[in-house]
Structure formats: C-alpha cells, structure tokens
Amino acid sequence: MKTCSKCQLSKPLDDFSSHRREKDGKNTICKSCDGIRKRAWQKANPQKCCDSRKRYYQRHPDRVKAYNQSQKGRARDKRYYRRNYQKCYAMVMLRKARLLKAPIVEKIDRISIYERDQGICHICKHRVSKMKFTLDHLIPLSKQGNHTAINLATAHRSCNSRRKDGRLPAQLRLLP
Fold first, then answer.
1. Average of pLDDT values for 136-158?
2. pLDDT digits (tens, 9 = 90+) for 80-134
3. In the chain, N or C terminus with fewer CB closer than 10 Å?
4. For helices 46-59 and 61-69, angle between their N-to-C axes, nearest 10 degrees
5. Nearest Cα to 91, choosing from 70, 108, 113?
6. φ, ψ for residue 149 (rounded to 5)?
C-alpha cells in the first residue's frame, strides 16, 4: 500500500505507475490523479500537444502505420466516423467534386441543406431521416454541375441511386 501525494488516499502499488527515480520504483501520484493532471495540461496547451503529435508521426511513421492498421486503430476510426458521420461524408463529397473537376467547389453544410429542404426527398416527396439522407446534385458533377449548396437537394439513398446522373430532374426549378 502507498499513499497518493495528490488525493491522499492509500492505494495498492498497482495503482501507481513505475518511476525510476523514486526509492520504491513507483510514482508518488496515483494513475487516476496523474491522468487528470495530464488531461488538464493538454487542455491548457493544445498547440504544444499538436506539435508533439506531429513530431512523433514524423519520427515514427512505421509505428503509426502499424497502429492504424491494427484492430485498435480501426476501432478508433470507426468510433470517430460514427460520431462525425456528417463531417466525414461532406469531406468525401468535396473530394469527389474536386476529382471530377467541378467548375465551382465549396464546403457544404449538410444539415443546413436538410433543414432548407425541410427533410423532404426532392425525388419522391417523402420524409427522409436526418441520419440516412444523401445529397443529390441537381445538375450532376459529370455534366459539369457545381458542388454548391444551390445545386444540392436532399434525397433518399435509394432514390438518388436510382436516378443516377443520366437525367436532369424537373426539380431544376429549385435553382434561382
């Protein structure tokens, strides 16, 4: 048993990380108090944390690649994707527009377009779930349409896939 110098609680030695300079080989602060201290420092110094991470990535690209390909790395990516679905989808659409060399490409706020269209699919006129909607280019990117909020409308995934890019929709009246 050892007493934490921060919280003054007596805890088993397993609750203390190792420290070479200490006589007993264990840190004076327990792991939970040390974690709180580290998170507070990271919150107070975001730029230093970012710079430190960048240096690590540059020095150890093989370790970073191995971690990202590991099960832990893939699980982290899945959690991020679930939490930030709209943001990830918007980035994919932006990249696609750039690859197809759209004349005008701007960042899109998917939720504002959903709210503008009041959550109604512009193809079948039925309600679309906020978690499952897609954005349809009224003038397709393949037909030199712009990737702008004006050229996008809310649609079901099935309606959007069925329409493809062959026909220009009657909904072009939405464009000013």
1. 88
2. 988 988 888 888 888 888 888 889 988 888 899 999 999 999 888 999 998 889 8
3. C
4. 100
5. 108
6. -60, -35
- DSSP at 133: -
Which residues lie closer than 8 Å to 42 by C-beta, 6 or more apart? 49
The candidate with the shortest Cα–Cα distance to 174, out of 139, 143, 130, is 139
Domains for the chain: give ranges and CATH numbers. 49-83 (no CATH), 85-174 (1.10.30)
Q: In terms of DSSP H, where are the helices of 70-169?
A: 71-83, 85-99, 110-116, 157-163
How many C-beta atoms lie closer than 10 Å to residue 152's C-beta?
23
CA dist., res. 136 & res. 155, Å (int): 6
- The Cα diameter of the chain in Å comes to 79
- Look up residue 146 and give its amino acid: N
Question: What are the DSSP E strand ranges found in the chain?
Answer: 2-3, 10-11, 16-18, 26-30, 134-137, 152-155
Within 10 angstroms of residue 125's Cβ, the number of other Cβ atoms is 8
Whole-number Å distance between alpha carbons of 151 and 139: 7
- Which strand (E) or helix (H) includes residue 69? helix 61-69
